[in-house]
Amino acid sequence: xxxxxxxxxxxxxxxxxxxxxxxxxxxxxxxxxxxxxxxxxxxxxxxxxxxxxxxxxxxxxxxxxxxxxxxxxxxxxxxxxxxxxxxxxxxxxxxxxxxxxxxxxxxxxxxxxxxxxxxxxxxxxxxxxxxxxxxxxxxxxxxxxxxxxxxxxxxxxxxxxxxxxxxxxxxxxxxxxxxxxxxxxxxxxxxxxxxxxxxxxxxxxxxxxxxxxxxxxxxxxxxxxxxxxxxxxxxxxxxxxxxxxxxxxxxxxxxxxxxxxxxxxxxxxxxxxxxxxxxxxxxxxxxxxxxxxxxxxxxxxxxxxxxxxxxxxxxxxxxxxxxxxxxxxxxxxxxxxxxxxxxxxxxxxxxxxxxxxxxxxxxxxxxxxxxxxxxxxxxxxxxxxxxxxxxxxxxxxxxxxxxxxxxxxxxxxxxxxxxxxxxxxxxxxxxxxxxxxxxxxxxxxxxxxxxxxxxxxxxxxxxxxxxxxxxxxxxxxxxxxxxxxxxxxxxxxxxxxxxxxxxxxxxxxxxxxxxxxxxxxxxxxxxxxxxxxxxxxxxxxxxxxxxxxxxxxxxxxxxxxxxxxxxxxxxxxxxxxxxxxxxxxxxxxxxxxxxxxxxxxxxxxxxxxxxxxxxxxxxxxxxxxxxxxxxxxxxxxxxxxxxxxxxxxxxxxxxxxxxxxxxxxxxxxxxxxxxxxxxxxxxxxxxxxxxxxxxxxxxxxxxxxxxxxxxxxxxxxxxxxxxxxxxxxxxxxxxxxxxxxxxxxxxxxxxxxxxxxxxxxxxxxxxxxxxxxxxxxxxxxxxxxxxxxxxxxxxxxxxxxxxxxxxxxxxxxxxxxxxxxxxxxxxxxxxxxxxxxxxxxxxxxxxxxxxxxxxxxxxxxxxxxxxxxxxxxxxxxxxxxxxxxxxxxxxxxxxxxxxxxxxxxxxxxxxxxxxxxxxxxxxxxxxxxxxxxxxxxxxxxxxxxxxxxxxxxxxxxxxxxxxxxxxxxxxxxxxxxxxxxxxxxxxx
Length: 988
Known about the structure:
Radius of gyration: 32 Å
Low-confidence stretches: 1-12, 600-649, 665-676, 938-942
Shape: globular
Oligomer: single chain
Number of helices: 21
């Protein structure tokens, strides 16, 4: 055994963060019973396998999430989950489908696991179930390329050990380095005693070295810094995968150039959004110290970037003194989301630009920033959008500078020097070459391509400044063909990663290509995830091919039958939708009595529900939400079928009348034969949060209110309620700019959290900011296209933005699609009503909607005198809508038809809504709208559920008026009054 190496590299860069395992639903902490880390280094390839044995000490089933960021050049190449005591490998799947399948299987109480990539190279691995008093084993594989030596000491390979915030009962480490004797291995350990690791010769035929840590308790994460004395040269690797031969090389690149002329005008774009607080600000300010010490006299134009690009502020730098600019930057609060696309600087704005940001464009229209001059992007936070930022900089002749790796002096040297740029990769024996950057990083540029011949040469052409060209040549030789069973070798997955980086600037334009790359190479990307399912039935139901083995063979035999069943089910859905829509038309054409007195209250106390606080039946209150039986109504009424209709009695006659009257209403005529719509007004109940921060904000003087908000903000960074309440107060006080900034923080709170994004989109619509809401709902639909609410919400936002065709298409998709699982009753009928209202509104504004792809039998506008629609943000949650009419009769899930013609949609017990109350001709009087939290079946429960309600009069007519309100319910049984309709008398 050998002790600590004689020379050990210092850990110059900050250690990468250790993975973190999160279980939001509380109880005793999850325990890490065993942590094993195995690292294999062969040539330039570093393969890391983490094996985690997790124990749930709680008496209930939980869901857990492993969160971890990856550095540039790292890739997740696979993971596995124990199923019935055996590890099952994950398979790639489209990202949105992976989310759908995971949540469907969780609802079925079976064993899925899902690994997803999100913005900024952040990854999360969701595991369910963590059985009570039981254990699960998760295996995670990560690959990366080891930087090669080029005559200088390479940066150390940093390996985090352990999980953040979790002690391991026992942890072990094994690092195998092929072909390198122990004398060439240098290392340093942070967080553990030096003698915890032992270095020894390798046991394999090729010799090599091995670092070992015997099993021992690990109370906190540690870091291993590893430096290998590899031979200098140009490392080239070639390998066969999936029918093609891939080549990967790290090419020496020119690193010398003339000084850049000092600019007269410098533009600084300073990202002051909420996430910017995670940047290493001291390094950024140090770069400007060095910069102004070199360029001592110039004009600086400062642009602050948050939810929008703010008006610039000019500073004069003389003799390198920049105190005023520094104080402004240090005093500026980090608040709001990032609308990076609003950065569009014209050529005349400056001679040179610096952009300080993490690159997370999470608000507004998604487009890259534009610069009419060279721009250097400086990033200093883990998880930044490095690939997209590099593309922005290099397109304008600049570069990305990573301040986590480069010192301020190195950054200054890079900004103030004009370096040669890679302008071409050419080879007669290869194709589809791609480079990691246009300029050298640590003296090299990584390139990859597809070889068309067994041996060949690649030429990398560098140019500038000036006309001079430099050519670097790389030769390759393909090895004998090997099996693909072990997964993609380094040249293949490095080529795939570089291709993904090329697409990162405008990923929304390349979603299909990104998905193809992820599927082919088994990578978690923006568009693909990796998933493990429990049974063959799960793989068949969701049409996901399982991993190789007996399970896949059985799947291939049965999948054709499953696809045919799915096609028949979609056809059946359209036929059923037409039948149900015709029934709604018949209801709409029926004239219901308006003057009948209310019947006496039924004395069925055991089954009664009342908004005032009376009980539900005991069996109902304790049973699961989706198994409950409808309770009896508070005030009973005859079913509508018992009321003699004044309209034509036959179904055909009623449908004909509904179509005729609907056409008149769409054209602006009264909706019933000459009768006027009753005048109606909407009064909303004021939502006044009672939290201490809300009281303090309300009491603050207007000039101090934003300062009070900033003072309260650090204690509520993970509270959506705080930002909603604070934004509402600023909106109420007429400060819409600050209100939007505060509200936009929801976009930064959690990556790809569709519940938060829905809340943000609803509140933006309530604030009449449809242009900002549309991109939010577009992102929601990308995340969860399997949920009909995603398309419906987007369609309604597009309608608010007066984008009629896109709105109609989204609503038609909602109505016409058969949504799997049967969890969304009546949303198709609700969306059809909204679709027809949109078409009618577009027609009144002189715009035609192309409806050729839609069934004309479903295109009949059915205007309503009163309409209430309830939606909410939480999945697996049951919220109930109640409307009480002037008769005292209450419409709700257990009493869906009222005597005067009120119609409540089917009950949503599984999340999101919508629940809709519709009434064609309201009786004069007061209608009260309330909502009640019934229950939830979530493994992860937010502190409160946010409701979005739309209350409309004259829906589907030219006289339509609508008000929207957002409220919160915090627990089962809670009731909130939303507001009232007051309907005035009309000529009968």
